[in-house]
């Protein structure tokens, strides 16, 4: 009897979760109100400044049992404030300049809630209706931003059932994979008795076309997702050939041409060239026009990974930096990077609206031929209506607003570069072309010592400086006041040796020049107390 | 001068977007308040009941120009209420039983906002911190739900830097691709001089291992994403062999064994068997234990696509339906289906924690060896913290709550099946094993006519019934009161001919028995006035 009463009571309370909104005075509603009225304050107050070691955080996430009993929403909310929110990363903080995440425009918060409440599924019209034309428009707008075709072109193709001007993706990796999937399938298309690689697979395709292998050529600064694409698509990471870059971290197109010719002489077909428009590490842009020329010579696909740099096309003052991108067969852009959209919005664009024919697929219950279901041209299936947030940003910020944000970020990077160069104990490693730069801290005495060192000593000091830089970066992160990331480059100034550097991305509109000065001051302090300095560097003085 | 004033003013207004929250009395805040206090009412009032034709909706999304000038948030909000929200699909409506989307628990709305506000990037610890252990715990909980290993196992592996018990994905398609990517790479692993398919590609791998081809065997009811996986991975759609199903839409394992043996006799290696645990069209579960036996015999990977059915494991009363799943090498589960999480939460689980070694990747600036960055074992790169919503649902609903939801949905499906069978003019096509079923409307007179028809007349009537069923489904959707989807099956009752059927998914906890009765009543009315009935069916009477 009591058991049955319990069951009835809990069924009712369970149903309430689906029918009764959170009360305005509930713990969760209070948290939400705080986010709504003062997001920056909420993040500053609730994210712990000093880093808790990961192994301690893990203790709060140890049980592998789905809890048997339901839990009150308020208890859960309280719990995650302490265990999750407090130990998150303050990605929006203006002094956290090591990531590609930034402060977000406030309006995306209520709009995200609307998006979740509507819970559309963009795989098909039947679960998205107006969201499908909206997503097609967003893709069309970005296509226009990159390729600048006349409105007539968009009138014809943007809402066409047969084609797609691009595909919305969860992120740049899926966008890059989709682009190269299409490149592969277009190259190895159906012909005569051969039904195409999509149907018969890679081995039959190579046999049919008589290629000994496939290769993709990309700058050594290409994003690691390209290696993943090579693996997934069956081409192999070794056949994604890294081409050296020049002093400015731009790919050497002459070297690329030489490599391509050598491969073709061996019967290896160059499937695609990948240009990078904003390398992840240094923000440099490959010579896209030269690459487009080479791709034409080779008769191969030309993809541009503009996950980071694509937004620069919105600035009339700087879009020339990406000149040649309009000649690319496909382009990756991440709206969750410098377009200030929350995480989860990658896009791949196709110059030719029929490019997606190469990957078209259908099913009995959806994606029927002739339908406008977006899912027939995407790698992913069910997907949320993230396009709604890109649409909102494009309209509310507008092209001119983006231009201002982008111009400011480039100007800020220039300022920071000059500041670094003016300080005797800092060293700029890569000049900013967009709003990324790399640098390091090298005590003046070490600089002087390096001047007179023999080759072996130089190498030893380089190794010590690497340890020191990595240690400083880690300690700065742990202190929690600011954050720069780190990577490893091979600059000429260090004899092309692997060189650990600080990396910064200056896209957050809230990052001020004063903050940048503070970051250098903090690093100078950290350097003075760094254990790696004492252990490995001081002996050279 | 005035130009400069304008520029300053707009820079200020632009910055306000990043610094000043939406005012409580703004249009967007009012919309948000309505969602918070009465989501169901908001959706009912703001989504237009009667369908507007798609080509008319498209007119509102025609321009391919990124707007030059910024727009007020309030103007944008107003605009999307009329143009987007009004013409969205009411996926949460209890009478919309044709999708796999359902009403959501209310607490996911404020939590989604928190997630967006925190804007973590799960690719690496540096941009997610506590979110990484949280995601590992969620994956661990689902692993435990499926594989039920002892806590010691999870203590060892759940937070290990070297391994992953699974991967969080944007959806089931990426989960299925990831599983088969791993299966492919494990099969064609490094050996001797061969560096593995990941490095050298598929052609070298086949040459090294001496296979003439690869094949994957799956039920003819397998999800279309598996074909996509075959294409992407270079195996080819033709080498994903569809095996017939029995009367209950479960794969015929004897036929699968025969096919596998025939392939192996030709030198074609069976790379994987894929079992379906909840087919998309009928909700049936393949004989997983028999398939596991066969996979052992063949020495191949056994993947189970439980995107839909996986949640059933949370019910102790029904988890036996998926018996054998614990023998699978990998399992796909979609939390945005019957786990009531918003769109965008797929998961793939691996029995063996070292499975992801086959796809491990690193980069200079993140995913360094030894780091706990989740991105070194995922197909995707940057990803949002969706795991937070799965975590919340698992804790707040609890296993017992899920059990109740799942048991109720199965009971409701049983009720609806019996109801359909009790009506003389309806016909149940597939019995519900989970909460999916298919049926159609066949006027009694037509049923009688079919009894006496010769073969050709039967086929003609079948074709006419197909047109009639498709027309009814479309008209019901357009009327906007309720929604069932449709698919095409080949039931024995229709001589294995392609047969268009209504398909329903009864997972929405708010769908009542009264609503189900109304849906049949509405369909009976629609049938009476259907133009396809008059045009193609009436002549047989």
TrEMBL record, chains A, B:
GO MF, any single term: pyridoxal phosphate binding
Keywords: Decarboxylase, Lyase, Pyridoxal phosphate
Keyword Lyase part of the UniProt annotation: yes
A GO term from the CC aspect: cytoplasm
Modified residues annotated as N6-(pyridoxal phosphate)lysine in this record: 337
Keyword Ion transport: no
Cofactor names: pyridoxal 5'-phosphate
Cited SUPFAM superfamilies: PLP-dependent transferases
Gene Ontology annotations of biological process type: carboxylic acid metabolic process
NCBIfam families: NOD_PanD_pyr
Homology family: Belongs to the group II decarboxylase family.
Protein name: Glutamate decarboxylase
Organism: Pseudoalteromonas ruthenica
Source taxonomy: Bacteria, Pseudomonadati, Pseudomonadota, Gammaproteobacteria, Alteromonadales
Gene name for this UniProt entry: panP
């Amino acid at each position: 009897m009591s058991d049955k009463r319990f069951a009835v009571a809990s069924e009712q309370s369970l149903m309430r979760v689906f029918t009764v909104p959170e009360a305005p005075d509930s713990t969760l509603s209070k948290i939400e109100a705080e986010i709504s009225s003062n997001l920056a304050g909420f993040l500053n107050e609730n994210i712990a400044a000093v880093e808790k070691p990961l192994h301690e955080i893990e203790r709060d996430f140890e049980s592998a049992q789905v809890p048997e009993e339901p839990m009150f929403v308020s208890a859960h909310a309280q719990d995650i404030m302490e265990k999750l929110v407090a130990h998150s990363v303050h990605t929006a903080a203006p002094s956290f300049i090591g990531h590609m995440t930034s402060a977000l425009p406030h309006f995306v918060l209520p709009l995200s809630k609307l998006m979740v409440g509507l819970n559309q599924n963009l795989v098909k019209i039947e679960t998205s209706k107006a969201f499908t034309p909206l997503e097609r428009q967003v893709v069309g707008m970005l296509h226009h931003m990159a390729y600048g075709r006349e409105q007539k072109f968009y009138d014809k193709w943007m809402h066409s059932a047969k084609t797609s001007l691009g595909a919305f993706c969860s992120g740049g990796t899926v966008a890059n994979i989709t682009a190269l999937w299409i490149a592969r399938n277009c190259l190895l298309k159906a012909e005569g008795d051969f039904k195409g690689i999509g149907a018969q697979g890679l081995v039959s395709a190579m046999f049919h076309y008589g290629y000994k292998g496939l290769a993709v050529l990309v700058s050594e600064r290409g994003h690691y997702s390209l290696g993943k694409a090579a693996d997934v698509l069956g081409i192999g990471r070794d056949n994604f050939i890294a081409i050296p870059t020049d002093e400015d971290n731009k790919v050497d197109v002459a070297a690329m041409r030489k490599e391509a010719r050598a491969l073709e002489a061996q019967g290896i077909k160059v499937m695609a060239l990948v240009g990078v428009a904003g390398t992840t590490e240094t923000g440099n842009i490959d010579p896209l026009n030269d690459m487009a020329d080479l791709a034409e010579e080779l008769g191969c696909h030309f993809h541009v990974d503009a996950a980071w740099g694509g937004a620069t096309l919105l600035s009339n003052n700087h879009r020339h930096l990406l000149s040649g991108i309009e000649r690319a067969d496909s382009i990756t852009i991440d709206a969750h990077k410098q377009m200030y959209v929350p995480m989860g919005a990658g896009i791949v664009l196709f110059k030719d609206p029929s490019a997606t024919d190469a990957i078209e697929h259908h099913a009995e219950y959806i994606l029927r031929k002739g339908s406008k279901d977006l899912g027939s041209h995407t790698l992913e299936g069910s997907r949320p209506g993230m396009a709604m947030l890109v649409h909102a940003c494009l309209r509310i910020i507008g092209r001119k607003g983006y231009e201002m944000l982008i111009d400011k970020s480039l100007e800020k990077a220039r300022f920071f570069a000059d500041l670094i160069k003016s300080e005797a104990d800092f060293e700029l490693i890569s000049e900013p072309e967009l709003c990324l730069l790399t640098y390091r801290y090298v005590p003046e005495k070490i600089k002087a010592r390096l001047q007179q060192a023999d080759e072996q000593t130089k190498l030893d000091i380089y190794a010590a400086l690497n340890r020191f830089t990595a240690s400083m970066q880690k300690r700065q992160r742990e202190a929690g006041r600011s954050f720069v990331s780190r990577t490893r480059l091979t600059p000429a100034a260090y004899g092309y040796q692997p060189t650990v550097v600080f990396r910064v991305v200056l896209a957050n509109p809230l990052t001020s020049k004063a903050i940048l000065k503070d970051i250098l001051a903090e690093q100078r302090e950290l350097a003075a107390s760094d254990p790696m300095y004492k252990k490995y560097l001081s002996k050279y003085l």
